[in-house]
Design a protein that fits this description.
Layout: E1 4-10, H1 17-24, E2 30-35, H2 42-47, E3 53-55, H3 62-71, E4 77-80, E5 85-86, H4 89-101, E6 108-117, E7 123-134, E8 140-142, E9 148-150, E10 155-164, H5 175-185, H6 192-204, H7 208-220, H8 226-242, H9 246-255, H10 264-276, H11 280-292, H12 309-322, H13 325-338, H14 343-362
Parallel strand pairs: 1-2, 1-4, 2-3, 6-10
Antiparallel strand pairs: 4-7, 5-10, 6-7, 8-9
């Protein structure tokens, strides 16, 4: 059986680090914790789990810190987590099985990352990341911000999931955008990935016009991952919507389809636009598109609501307005399967009940 080093970079994570390490300590053979300047009890907590607690002077470069942590690993494979990640029991068992069956010809393994959840604890925002890498391949992290592990060779896609669990709601901070702006001031040439993530930071900070400018630079670049170009179109459409330019929003949503089949999020937004104009047949077509796409093989971001309950709820509305009452009821039931206590679903149920009771009384 292969051996595994867990490598982490941390700073002021005393509220979550112990939970993270408890969920994986028996799954790995070595733990390496690199602290980038904690002022709380993070290092003391880390020392309860390992004697490899190292310091790294923060230089506004996440890749540099992660590469430093990887250099201190000694096992066959390197596994990485953030302090606010956790492995749930089902995934712990999957990880154990993966470790038992992993063969030395595999160079890197991707895992699903569940980043956000609804009130029923269902993942609503997920994507894949390479989490396990063969140490002797000396794979390196790239990018000062929104870093990524550059891997190649024989790559395995696993069913293991990592769960992101913040103790409290994350507040928007300007750390990342400031790092990017410092790089620009230095005259650093942005990679396509840098362009994409800098655009995202601009969007998230409400700088919509500048975000559009940089999204265009990224999309028009001959390189760049197609999944990120799809996401860039979706995010740019949001910027146009925020600026009140609906026509450009539609144009940009449609632009995303040149890279692959319409993402459910794109289809639902197109459906919403037609629904707002009371063009129900066209709206129905787009919502049906959202339900047709198999999201299991999408390597980029997957937002589950747009391929599950949301289009069903909107189809309920469309068919009701078209006069297809029974079909509207059925679609509401399908939405309820995903969100049994959703206020809109329950409102619809009560509305339908009263409507049909009145219809029966009139007979």
């Amino acid at each position: 059986m292969v051996t595994i080093s867990l490598c982490m970079i941390v700073k002021n994570e005393e509220n979550v680090l112990e939970r993270c390490l408890n969920s994986v300590k028996d799954l790995v053979d070595e733990i390496v914790i690199v602290d980038t300047g904690s002022s709380d009890n993070t290092k003391e907590i880390a020392k309860r789990f390992t004697d490899k607690v190292l310091d790294f002077e923060w230089i506004d470069d996440f890749s540099a810190a992660r590469n430093f942590s990887f250099k201190h690993a000694t096992m066959d494979y390197i596994f990485w987590l953030d302090a606010d990640d956790v492995m749930l029991e089902e995934d712990r068992q999957k990880f154990k099985k993966l470790k038992e069956q992993l063969t030395s010809d595999v160079d890197a393994v991707s895992m699903v990352y569940h980043l956000a959840f609804d009130e029923y604890n269902n993942p609503i925002y997920s994507f894949r990341r390479f989490r396990l890498a063969k140490r002797e391949k000396n794979f390196v992290w790239k990018g000062a911000v929104h870093e990524y592990l550059e891997v190649r060779g024989r790559l395995l896609q696993s069913d293991v999931a990592i769960t992101h669990r913040k103790e409290k709601k994350e507040e928007r901070n300007d750390r990342n955008i400031k790092i990017y702006e410092k790089l620009l001031e230095k005259g650093e040439k942005f990679t396509p990935r840098d362009l994409f993530y800098y655009s995202n930071e601009l969007k998230d900070h409400g700088q919509y016009e500048k975000a559009i400018e940089y999204y265009e630079r990224f999309i028009n670049h001959e390189d760049g991952w197609e999944e990120e170009k799809i996401r860039a179109c979706i995010n740019m459409a949001f910027c146009y919507r925020s600026l009140g330019n609906i026509e450009k929003e539609i144009e940009t949503l449609i632009r995303s389809i040149q890279y692959d089949v319409p993402r459910p999020e794109v289809s639902c937004r197109m459906g919403d636009l037609y629904l707002e104009r009371k063009l129900y047949d066209k709206a129905i077509m787009w919502y049906q598109f959202a339900l047709m796409v198999d999201t299991s093989n999408i390597q980029g971001i997957v937002q589950k609501p747009y391929s599950t309950w949301y289009p069903y709820l909107q189809l309920c509305v469309c068919h009701w307005h078209k006069g297809d009452k029974e079909l509207a009821v059925e679609y509401n039931k399908k939405a309820k399967e995903y969100r049994p206590n959703d206020p809109s679903v329950l409102y619809n149920e009560e509305f339908f009940k009263k409507y049909f009771e009145e219809q029966n009384n009139e007979k």
